[in-house]
TrEMBL record:
Keyword Transmembrane helix: yes
Name assigned to this protein: Uncharacterized protein
Superkingdom of the organism of origin: Bacteria
Keyword Transmembrane helix in record: yes
Keywords: Membrane, Transmembrane, Transmembrane helix
Organism: Halochromatium glycolicum
TM segment ranges: 30-52, 58-81, 93-115
Disordered: region residues: 1-21
Length: 434
């Protein structure tokens, strides 16, 4: 009996149980959290679409706006009392929208009214091409849109030189066209690195040029003849062909444009990778000059890396100004005589030391072979003699000057140096001395 009394007493003192099916009130802070997350996700999707989506399409635009207003209306209804209502009659049918859906629908209608998709995504206009002039005009507009200027416009805009495009324009233009359109169906070098330095003296100019890269076919064809700036002037060039042996650059062969006349200054190179050096002496003293590195000469893809520099060892005529341009054939070659277009290659200046590092291996090879008498081509050896004589005359205070000292001499001058890691077609440098 004591057990019954104990059981009854415990039942009377037990706390009341909550009836099954009771509704718990949701904490308002959770509603705020859900609303915040919804808004943030919608805004993030909008930001990604606006700033990071490369190809925007009308359908994506509409979907993003619809989802954005759905999220905003849902969030606002969770946070605030929503009494929005839309009522109307369409074709005799009464339509009524209330609550969050009304806010969502009204916001979308207003947004699409102010900024319809047709305004952001205008339909592409069909091209009505009735003549070749229409095609040429489209090509000219496309080039102009990408910053390319026709020859006439470019000549007016550039401020570096004057004489080259006034009294000497016919010869200058003829040379530029010949350089730009020299094309031969020969295997060349794949994306070569072309490092070129022009050094100006009181009488004449010297060009130092290194070309290296992988050959395209069984043999790479390198054209090493050069064209002087002044009409009637001459240029003499030598080509030195190297090879890699046990990680060291060695001289394999030397040839000049005098001993290779039958091949029009084009030499075949079988070593891979290709590594060669062109040495040229121009006898024309110039106060204004144009320097061209045409990638089509060395690469059928017309692409590679260009290092280009100019220095003056004539203290009376230092380099006063220079500018760098891309040059290529015009798409609308029949519309803009002459058929050349130009693009400013600004902000490409570099340190001459980087260019000297590219030339240094070849200068060391030439110096050692020249001193040891291992340069077999007599005209190439004579050309090297003339080069060193010019440097020695320009810097008389230097005793026992050698070829490897050339970079050190360039560091003393006011050098203009440029580097184009992804050069295409031709690179044109204009300079004025004085």
């Amino acid at each position: 009996m004591s057990d019954d009394l104990g059981t009854a007493g415990s039942a009377e003192t037990r706390p009341p149980q909550a009836p099954s099916g009771a509704v718990h009130q949701i904490n308002p802070k959770y509603l705020f959290l859900v609303a915040s997350i919804t808004v943030l996700v919608a805004l993030a999707a909008t930001v990604v679409y606006v700033f990071f989506e490369q190809e925007r399409e009308p359908v994506t635009y509409v979907v993003v706006v619809v989802l954005l207003f759905f999220a905003l209306s849902t969030a606002s209804s969770l946070l605030f009392a929503n009494a929005t209502a839309l009522k109307g009659t369409v074709m005799g049918v009464t339509i009524s929208i209330v609550g969050p859906a009304a806010l969502w629908f009204a916001g979308m209608l207003f947004f699409f009214y102010m900024l319809p998709p047709e305004k952001l995504f205008p339909p592409e206009q069909s091209l009505d091409l009735e003549s070749i002039d229409d095609v040429l005009q489209i090509a000219a507009d496309l080039e102009r849109r990408h910053g390319w200027a026709s020859y006439d416009d470019w000549k007016t805009e550039q401020k570096t030189v004057r004489e080259l495009f006034d009294d000497e324009e016919s010869h200058t233009l003829s040379s530029l066209l010949a350089i730009m359109f020299e094309t031969k169906d020969l295997s060349k070098v794949i994306e070569p690195r072309v490092t070129t330095v022009f050094v100006y003296f009181e009488q004449g100019v010297i060009k130092l040029q290194r070309i290296h890269g992988s050959r395209e076919g069984a043999k790479a064809h390198i054209r090493f003849q050069s064209t002087p700036t002044k009409e009637g002037a001459t240029a003499k060039s030598a080509l030195f062909i190297g090879d890699q042996r046990f990680g060291q650059l060695v001289l394999e062969k030397s040839i000049t444009d005098l001993t290779a006349r039958g091949r029009r200054g084009i030499e075949e190179i079988s070593s891979d990778p290709v590594d060669c050096f062109i040495l040229t002496i121009y006898d024309d003293p110039v106060s204004e000059d144009y320097l061209v590195v045409n990638m089509r000469r060395f690469s059928n893809a017309a692409a590679g890396t260009v290092d280009l520099a100019a220095a003056s060892l004539d203290p009376s005529f230092p380099i006063a100004d220079s500018s760098l341009w891309y040059m290529k054939p015009a798409l609308s070659s029949l519309r803009h005589p002459p058929p050349l277009v130009f693009l400013d290659a600004r902000d490409k200046e570099t340190d001459i030391e980087r260019i000297n590092q590219q030339l240094q291996p070849w200068l060391a090879v030439l110096d050692s072979n020249f001193r040891a008498g291992r340069i077999r081509d007599e005209t190439a050896r004579q050309l090297l003699d003339k080069v060193m004589a010019k440097f020695s005359t320009a810097v008389p205070e230097e005793e026992s000057l050698s070829i490897v000292d050339i970079p050190r001499l360039l560091d003393r001058t006011r050098v203009r140096a440029y580097q184009l890691p992804r050069a295409e077609y031709a690179t044109l440098m204009l300079l004025r001395r004085g």
